[in-house]
Amino acid sequence: LVDLLSTGIDDAITEAAGALRAIAAHSAKHQDRIVKAGAVPRLIELLISDVHGLPDQAAGALMNLAASNAMHRRRIVVGGAIPPLIKVIRSKVVMATLVIDNVGGAGAALM
Questions:
Q1: Cβ atoms < 10 Å from Cβ of 17
Q2: What sign has the CA pseudo-torsion 3, 35, 76, 59?
Q3: How far is it, in rounded angstroms, from Cα 17 to Cα 65?
Q4: What is the pTM of this model?
Q5: Do residues 55 and 48 touch, judged by C-beta distance below 8 A?
């Protein structure tokens, strides 16, 4: 799966990141294998992708890898994940703000 992160095929990369996200959620053993396979640097790179859904899958995989292991957290931080993660968060805030702006008064009228 880690090799699929570098295929150049957007759908395959997104699916591989999603699969790594799911696998990493299940056990520390799986997390260790994913990290040892070299997934962290590539997942960090994918945080800035313009491919729909890919930054979310990469962030989710990193979230699960960081959940229970200080060494993994350190590798993620030292690898430079914080600035692109902030960008992912900001994009979500901007999107939510635009939805609220577009809904305008209709949202209040429906409540």
A1: 30
A2: positive
A3: 12
A4: 0.85
A5: yes
Q: C-alpha 42: how far from its chain's center? A: 11
For 35, residues 6+ apart whose C-beta sits below 8 A from its C-beta are 65, 69, 72, 75
The helices-and-strands tally (H runs, E runs) of the chain is: 7, 0
Residue with tokens 């994913």: 34
**DSSP secondary structure code for residue 8 in this structure:** S
Amino acid in position 4: L
Cα angle 47, 48, 51 (rounded to 5 degrees) comes to 90
57/17 Cα distance (integer angstroms): 6
pLDDT tens for each residue of 23-70 = 999 999 999 999 999 999 999 999 999 999 999 999 999 999 999 899
For residue 43, the one-letter residue type is L
